[in-house]
Design goal:
Structural class: alpha/beta
CATH class of the largest domain: Alpha Beta
Largest sheet: 7 strands, mixed
Number of domains: 2
CATH architecture of the largest domain: 3-Layer(aba) Sandwich
Distance between the termini: 49 Å
Mean pLDDT: 95
Number of helices: 14
C-alpha cells in the first residue's frame, strides 16, 4: 500500500464539496436538485469585468506577473480596502492571491510555529482547522451562543483555552456558515483579548461587502490592531467572481512580504489578465454590485419566510453573508433521527433539497445539544427557493 507523508493525514478538506458530490449523484439519476449546499453563485460576473479580462488577454497579458501582484491592482486594493475600513494602506501592504483561501495557509505558514496554538471559529470555515493541523499547530476551536437575534461568540470558551503557547486568533466576522455579525462591543472585546495575549489576528473578511443594511467594520481598524492583523480579501462574493480565483492579503509590510515569498514558491503569481479584471472591478460602476446585493436580499427574504413557515424551524435573519443557519432540533427529534448524515440525505432523496449539516463546519464541540443545518442561497433563484422549501415543508411536517 502506498504510504503518504505523515502530515497528509492532518489535512482536512472543504466538506461542502462532498455534499455537492451527493447532490450531483442524485441529479445524475434524473432527479431535480435544489442546491443550497455550496456558497457558489449563479449570478453572472458583470460584463465590464469580462470585457477587461478579454482585452487584457488580447493585449498579451498572458505571461508571468510579479509575485506580489501587479502594481496597479495592489494600489487599487490598498485604496479600496483602506477607505472601507479607515486604514492607511499602500501597495506594500497588499499581496495578491489566487483567491481568498490561499491567505489562510500562507498566513499560518508565516506566523504559526509548530506546536503553537491557534484559536479558530467552530462552526466555521473548515479550512482553518485543516491548515492549522497540517502545519503542525494545535487547533483550539471556539464556538457561538445562539440568541433570538443570531449568534454571539462564546467568550468564556475562548478565554478558558488561551495559554502562553497561543499565538494566533482567526476571526471571521460576517461569518460562514452562521451569518454571525459582531456587535461593536464584541469586536472591541476580541481586540482587547488579542492585545492582552499578544496574538496575531487573521481577519477573514470575505463577506465584508455582502450586507443588506448597516455598515461593516474591520477589527484591523481598532486602536493598535492594524499592526497585528492580516485581512483576507476576495473578489469572489463582492463581484460574483467565485471561479476567477482572485483575492489578496492586506496587512503589515513585513508579513505581506513573507506571504509574497510563498507566492513565489507555490504558484509564482496570480493570473495576469484576471488581475486586470480585478482593477476594472474595483474602478467600475457601483450599479452591478448593488444589483447583486438586491438579488441576494430577495433570496434571503424568500428563504427566511419559507423556513419560518415550517413547524419546528427556528432561524434568525442576518444582515450579512448569503447563509442561513436554522435550528432544526425539533424536526430532527420529531422525525426520530439520530444521525445528521441520514437526516440530510433523506431530505435530498425525498425532496431534492440539498443542504449542509453543522458537522461540515468543524468537529462538534462538547456540550452541543442542538441540531443546525446551513442553507446557502447564492446559487439558487427565488422561484426555486420557494418550490424546494414547499417540498421540504411537506416532508418534514
Amino acid at each position: 500500500m502506498r504510504k503518504f507523508a505523515s502530515r497528509y493525514d492532518r489535512l482536512g478538506t472543504e466538506t461542502a464539496f462532498a455534499v455537492g458530490a451527493d447532490a450531483a449523484a442524485w441529479a445524475a439519476k434524473d432527479n431535480h436538485v435544489y442546491p443550497f449546499h455550496l456558497g457558489d453563485m449563479n449570478i453572472a460576473t458583470p460584463e465590464y469585468i469580462l470585457d477587461a479580462a478579454l482585452q487584457a488577454a488580447r493585449d498579451g497579458k498572458t505571461g508571468y506577473a510579479p509575485g506580489p501582484g501587479i502594481l496597479p491592482l495592489r494600489e487599487a486594493l490598498a485604496v479600496d480596502i483602506g477607505m472601507a475600513r479607515g486604514l492607511n494602506l499602500s501597495a506594500e501592504n497588499i499581496s495578491v492571491q489566487p483567491g481568498g483561501k490561499p491567505v489562510i495557509g500562507k498566513f499560518l505558514a508565516t506566523l504559526l510555529e509548530e506546536g503553537a496554538e491557534a484559536l479558530y471559529p467552530n462552526p466555521g470555515y473548515p479550512i482553518y482547522e485543516s491548515q492549522i493541523e497540517y502545519l503542525g499547530g494545535k487547533a483550539l476551536p471556539y464556538g457561538y451562543v445562539a440568541t433570538e437575534s443570531g449568534f454571539e461568540i462564546n467568550r468564556a470558551e475562548i478565554e478558558s483555552q488561551i495559554t502562553e503557547n497561543t499565538s494566533i486568533l482567526i476571526y471571521n466576522n460576517y461569518q460562514n456558515p452562521i451569518g454571525a455579525e459582531s456587535t461593536e462591543a464584541e469586536m472591541r472585546w476580541l481586540a482587547d483579548l488579542a492585545l492582552k495575549h499578544d496574538l496575531w489576528v487573521l481577519s477573514d473578511e470575505a463577506y465584508f461587502e455582502v450586507r443588506y443594511s448597516g455598515r461593516s467594520k474591520s477589527i484591523a481598524s481598532l486602536p493598535d490592531m492594524a499592526e497585528r492583523t492580516v485581512i483576507l480579501y476576495t473578489f469572489s462574493k463582492k463581484f460574483a467572481m467565485t471561479g476567477w480565483r482572485l483575492g489578496c492579503a492586506a496587512g503589515p509590510k513585513d508579513v505581506i512580504e513573507a506571504i509574497s515569498k510563498f507566492n513565489t514558491n507555490q504558484e509564482s503569481c496570480s493570473n495576469h489578465f484576471v488581475q486586470a479584471a480585478g482593477i476594472a472591478a474595483l474602478n467600475g460602476p457601483a450599479e452591478p454590485q448593488n444589483s447583486i446585493l438586491v438579488e441576494l436580499k430577495l433570496r434571503r427574504d424568500a428563504l427566511v419566510q419559507a423556513l419560518l413557515d415550517i413547524d419546528g424551524v427556528k432561524v434568525s435573519t442576518p444582515e450579512t453573508t448569503f447563509y442561513l443557519f436554522p435550528d432544526v432540533t425539533d424536526i430532527f427529534k420529531r422525525k426520530g433521527y439520530s444521525d445528521a448524515t441520514k437526516f440530510r440525505l433523506d431530505a435530498l432523496h425525498e425532496t431534492g433539497v440539498s443542504f449542509c449539516s453543522r458537522e461540515h463546519f468543524g468537529r462538534p464541540l462538547p456540550g452541543e445539544d442542538k441540531v443546525f443545518i446551513r442553507f446557502a442561497y447564492s446559487g439558487i433563484n427565488v422561484d426555486q427557493i420557494q418550490e424546494g422549501l414547499a417540498a421540504l415543508k411537506i416532508f418534514w411536517e
